[in-house]
Amino acid sequence: MAIKETKFQFENSTGYYCGKVRDVYSFEDKLAMVTSDRISAFDVVLPRAIPYKGQVLNQIANLFLKLTSDIVPNWVESVPHPNVTIGKKCEPFMVEMVIRGYLAGHAAREYKAGKRMLCGVALPEGLKENDKLPEPIITPTTKAHEGHDEDISREDILAKGIIDEADYLKLEDYTRKLFQRGTEIAAKSGLLLVDTKYEFGKLNGEIYLLDEIHTPDSSRYFYAEGYQERQNKGEKQKQLSKEFVRQWLIENGFQGKEGQEVPEMSDEFVESVSNRYIELYQNITGKAFVKAENNDIQTIEASIRNFFNVN
Question: Are 71 and 180 in contact (CB under 8 A)?
Fold first, then answer.
């Protein structure tokens, strides 16, 4: 059964936010985040949910948050259910820190359109799609509650006062260190971490890493084996990410533009997407994926109520 939405009612909850993938319940000083099985692409939530996707995202995120806690503290306090994470309520920075090690996805589409400057970062001539960049580049985006996130440069972030310079320089430093750690962990599993994004917040003057990291929703992975041969031949890379969903949508006439309708997702396609998410889990963790038996709405709700000791 896929978890599409929750909409719980907690007596002492101070707020509720329904994101593209997560349902977030606010309490006095904590957040309870339910990772649903919804899937989005081009900033649009697709009509059908993907079984076990939420469990995959939540468990990969918590693994990587543990493996990077020596770099930057994170918000997590408890994972009472495979789809639920509970942690500190921080004031989020209104920028997502995107870092790219390869010319792929959005960056490749911009480059193909003739742009050689991305978020204030100059890109060299002569690159092909999926080429490794001379060094990782940080290409931030604004965080949009509705509609599309937009590219923004470091200069604009500072000029507009979105983040002060001291904090922003820390975010850049954390972003590079997290990407390096993620790259090293992926390499042990025969994967290349292509690009990813991080979200940060602040609590009592300290910066925390928020949300999820290094999941197939926030990151793109290539298989390392055969990568260079495929590049040399101009072939598509074998990848583990959400990009194959975007490509399927593009091939079926949808890119999130006005007037376009989301193509119908067959049972077979939904199952194939679920299997791809499970494949990434097993590749990146080196562990067999165990489908949660208790991934129903009632058990998820009970796990939150038990943590906060509410009826």
Answer: no
Handedness of CA 141, 222, 208, 174 (dihedral sign): negative
222 is a domain residue: yes
Q: What region does 91 belong to: left with phi over 0, alpha with psi -120 to 50, or beta? A: beta
Q: What is the pLDDT of residues 182-211, one digit of tens each?
A: 999 999 999 999 999 999 999 999 999 999
Give the pTM: 0.89
How far apart CA 235 and CA 178 sit, in angstroms, is 29
Whether residue 26 is contained in a domain is answered as no
Encoded tokens for 50: 């993907």
Half-sphere exposure in the Cβ direction for 82 (13 Å, CA): 16
CATH assignment at residue 227: 3.30.470.20
In a domain, 59, yes or no: no
Count the helix, strand and coil residues of the chain and give each as a percent rounded to the nearest 5: 30, 25, 40
Measured from the Cβ of residue 291, the count of other Cβ atoms closer than 10 Å reads: 12
Q: Which two tokens mark 157?
A: 């972030």
Instruction: Give the range of the structural domain holding residue 122, as residue numbers without chain letter.
Output: 93-241
Measured distance CA(222)–CA(227) in Å, rounded: 7
Predicted confidence (pLDDT) per residue in 45-86, tens digit: 999 999 999 999 999 999 999 999 999 999 999 999 999 999
How deeply is 257 buried, as exposed, middle or buried, from its count of CB atoms within 10 A (0-12, 13-18, 19+)?
Answer: exposed
Q: How far apart are CA 9 and CA 19, in angstroms?
A: 17
**What is the per-residue pLDDT across 133-150, written as a single tens digit (0 to 9) for each?**
999 999 999 986 555 678
Give a yes or no: residue 174 inside a domain.
yes
How many domains, the chain?
Answer: 1
